[in-house]
């Protein structure tokens, strides 16, 4: 689809009779812009999940994006991987950079947490896979995900919703907004409680997002953002395969005895300003994040994060010598510190101080990308990114030795590609890109029988990815098909373990390759209702093929990399009536077990889950749904932790949720 010009982006109507925001694109404008990427990208609007599911976890949002494997563990926590990113990260997120309205959610050293995501709060979500996330300064194999909130200039800025369901789940959400002359504002808040499917998995959350914008003129707008979260969550823990499949509701005994939890308080403040000069648009802003992690696990972790930074982006779309040329250039800065203290965990209470450090991270990325249309519908695209990053640890607890140290990285990530606009709805693309993933403070190795590898010795993960694909979007059918291969050097993987914990260090060479296929089609229409708005039966599916393996590794040969299924399919078949009524079944299918250790000795189990949903949503003020999940009450393994060499008694498995029914309704105006 052709890109929206800068003049279109400021005047497209959002609410009835209300000019659109300049700082925040509409979903249609964002789709046109993201489709100028010569690689794997996706845009998911809130209408795709918000009114027909509990919208409880990021899995609900990204379920039908090929190449994304998202499986909830407990509460809001989710194991997420894109193209095999972060396979060895058994806690928190690694390998995908998260943003909220362009503001980083990940900490400055690379960690992310889905507990801070409120799936009810966004109007659309952008997914940039791998090196296609260049504009965010993303430097990881998985790419970036950007969650975009509405403004007061959107349609239906006011609303309320209620959702309830299995295992004590209940949530109330409300939003309010509007525009008055040059001012607009929007606020959304939710409060949620759940007992959880498993023992010791209850939790609660309160979340708030707000923004206020002011238009100095049709070509100049500034917007201020506030985001706050309070999350309290018990952790049931990983168990053995036998326990997961025979007694899935049971928690790990140690998690109960130590009252293990992950509790988070965060506040984010940011500003974004957009200025338009004829064919050029300039965006810039700054942000600050205060996060407190209170995390009793094997020790009582008390971490205080202070992250801050800024960004600037220039987009120039003009005709040069009769040829269209789009230039994008920018800079991103993300710095931060972690006041890191770990205490003994005495049944969920703080004991003696066991370690303490100040961890400081700095990241500055500069990028440029140019798209030259040497034919009216074919663009040659070239770009590069330079990343300067440092990691510095000051150890304040020296009784166990001085763990202080510092590292510095200067990395280039070039990219080149072609984008062919076959017709206004159909594209083909190809690209070669490099990503460079800087290690965090968590990458190191130590323990009995394990070589000591300090974090200062860990090298960045470098991937060169080759990608080719096509996508189409038409009223009665859409599809996308992408094939890729990433040759990786120094992948951050679990090569050693002690006390059941994974020690992430650098592998030698690995390969990630796969196929991402998605489709939506009206396979039947005019069944009971004919005319310009007929009824139809709509098929929606997302299939991912993963082939991740070591490449002649000294210890593991050509073994498969653990942590992700080889085949993953999500599909639904919905009858849609023009009045807004819909109903139909869905399936989640993992037909082949995958390994949970690098030695390839222990696997999960294959599974197929059957669901059904029905509801009403005609795009108007009122919507309602009822959804049943895992209707056959199948016992299965939803996700697993990774280790180097496992045994049958290794506690690595997270049982999936049993049969569950949810219902909800929403009214907006």
Could you give a short description of this structure?
Helix content is 4%, strand content 57%. By secondary structure, it is mainly beta.
Task: Tell me what you see in this structure.
The model is unreliable at 1-13 (pLDDT under 50). The longest helix is centred in the N-terminal third of the chain and has 8 residues, at 27-34. The chain is mainly beta. It is globular. The chain has helices at residues 6-11, 27-34, 58-62, 241-246, 253-257, and strands at 41-45, 68-74, 77-82, 97-100, 103-104, 124-129, 143-148, 159-165, 169-180, 183-194, 203-217, 220-234, 261-277, 280-296, 299-320, 323-346, 349-375, 378-395, 405-423, 426-437, 461-474, 477-489, 492-498, 501-506, 509-525, 536-550, 567-576, 581-590, 607-617, 622-629, 637-640, 653-655, 660-668. It has a single domain (6-668), classed as TonB-dependent receptor, beta-barrel domain (Maltoporin, Chain A, Beta Barrel), CATH 2.40.170. The chain has 5 helices and 33 strands.
Tally of DSSP helical segments: 5
- DSSP E strands, number: 33
- Gap between N and C termini: 31 Å
Q: Which residues form runs of ≥5 with pLDDT under 50?
A: 1-13
Mean pLDDT: 92
Shape: globular
Classified by CATH, the class is: Mainly Beta
Question: Per CATH, what is the topology?
Answer: Maltoporin, Chain A
Sheet having the most strands = 22 strands, antiparallel, barrel
Structural class based on helices, strands and sheet pairing: mainly beta
Estimate what percentage of residues fall within beta strands: over 45%
Backbone CA Rg? 24 Å
Helix content: under 10%
Per CATH, the architecture is Beta Barrel
**So, the CATH homologous superfamily?**
TonB-dependent receptor, beta-barrel domain
């Amino acid at each position: 689809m052709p890109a929206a010009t800068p003049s279109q982006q400021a005047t497209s109507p959002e609410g009835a009779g209300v000019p659109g925001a300049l700082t925040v694109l509409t979903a249609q404008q964002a789709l046109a812009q993201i489709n100028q990427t010569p690689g794997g990208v996706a845009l998911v609007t809130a209408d795709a999940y918000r009114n027909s599911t509990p919208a409880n976890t990021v899995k609900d949002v990204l379920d039908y994006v090929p190449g994304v494997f998202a499986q909830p563990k407990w509460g809001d926590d989710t194991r997420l991987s894109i193209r095999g990113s972060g396979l060895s990260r058994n806690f928190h997120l690694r390998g995908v950079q998260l943003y909220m309205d362009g503001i980083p959610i990940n900490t400055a050293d690379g960690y992310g947490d889905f507990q801070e995501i409120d799936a009810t709060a966004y109007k659309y979500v952008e997914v940039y896979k791998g090196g296609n996330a260049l504009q965010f300064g993303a430097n990881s194999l998985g790419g970036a995900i950007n969650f975009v909130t509405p403004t007061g200039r959107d349609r239906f800025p006011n609303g309320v919703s209620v959702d309830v369901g299995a295992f004590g789940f209940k949530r109330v959400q409300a939003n309010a907004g509007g525009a008055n002359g040059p001012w607009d504002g929007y606020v959304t808040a939710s409060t949620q409680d759940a007992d959880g499917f498993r023992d010791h998995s209850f939790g609660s959350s309160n979340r708030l997002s707000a923004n206020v914008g002011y238009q100095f003129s049709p070509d100049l707008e500034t917007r201020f953002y506030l985001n706050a979260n309070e999350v309290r969550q018990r952790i049931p823990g990983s168990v053995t395969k036998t326990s997961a499949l025979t007694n899935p509701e049971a928690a790990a005994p140690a998690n109960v005895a130590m009252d293990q939890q992950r509790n988070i308080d965060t506040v984010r403040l940011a500003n974004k300003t957009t200025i338009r000069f004829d064919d050029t648009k300039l965006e810039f802003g700054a942000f600050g994040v205060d996060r407190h992690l209170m995390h009793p696990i094997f020790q009582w972790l008390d971490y205080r994060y202070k992250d801050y930074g800024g960004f600037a982006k220039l987009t120039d779309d003009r005709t040069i010598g009769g040829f269209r040329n789009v230039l994008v250039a920018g800079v991103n800065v993300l710095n931060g510190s972690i006041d890191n203290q770990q205490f003994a965990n005495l049944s969920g209470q703080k004991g003696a101080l066991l370690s303490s450090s100040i961890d400081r991270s700095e990241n500055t990325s500069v990028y440029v990308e140019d798209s030259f249309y040497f034919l009216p519908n074919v663009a040659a695209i070239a770009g590069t990114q330079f990343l300067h990053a440092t990691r510095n640890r000051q150890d304040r607890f020296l009784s166990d030795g001085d763990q202080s140290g510092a590292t510095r990285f200067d990395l280039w990530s070039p990219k080149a590609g072609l984008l062919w606009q076959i017709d206004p709805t159909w594209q083909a693309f190809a690209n070669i890109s490099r990503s460079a993933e800087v290690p965090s403070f968590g990458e190191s190795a130590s323990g009995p029988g394990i070589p000591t590898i300090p974090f200062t010795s860990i090298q960045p993960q470098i991937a060169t990815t080759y990608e080719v694909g096509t996508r189409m979007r038409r009223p009665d059918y859409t599809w996308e098909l992408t094939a890729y291969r990433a040759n990786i050097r120094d992948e951050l993987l679990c090569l050693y373990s002690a006390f059941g914990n994974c020690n992430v260090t650098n592998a030698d060479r690995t390969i990630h390759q796969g196929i991402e296929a998605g489709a939506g089609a009206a396979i039947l229409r005019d069944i009971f209702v004919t005319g310009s708005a007929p009824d139809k039966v709509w098929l929606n599916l997302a299939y991912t093929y993963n082939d991740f393996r070591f490449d002649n590794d000294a210890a593991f040969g050509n073994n498969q990399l653990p942590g992700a299924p080889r085949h993953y399919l999500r599909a639904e078949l919905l009858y849609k009536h023009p009045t807004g009524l819909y109903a139909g079944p869905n399936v989640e299918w993992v037909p082949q077990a995958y390994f949970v250790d690098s030695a390839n000795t222990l696997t999960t189990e294959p599974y197929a889950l059957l669901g059904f949903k029905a509801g009403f949503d005609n795009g108007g003020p009122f919507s309602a749904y009822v959804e049943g999940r895992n209707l056959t009450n199948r016992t299965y393994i939803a996700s697993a932790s990774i280790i180097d060499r496992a045994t049958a008694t290794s506690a690595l498995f997270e049982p999936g949720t049993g049969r569950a029914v949810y219902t909800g309704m929403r009214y907006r105006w």
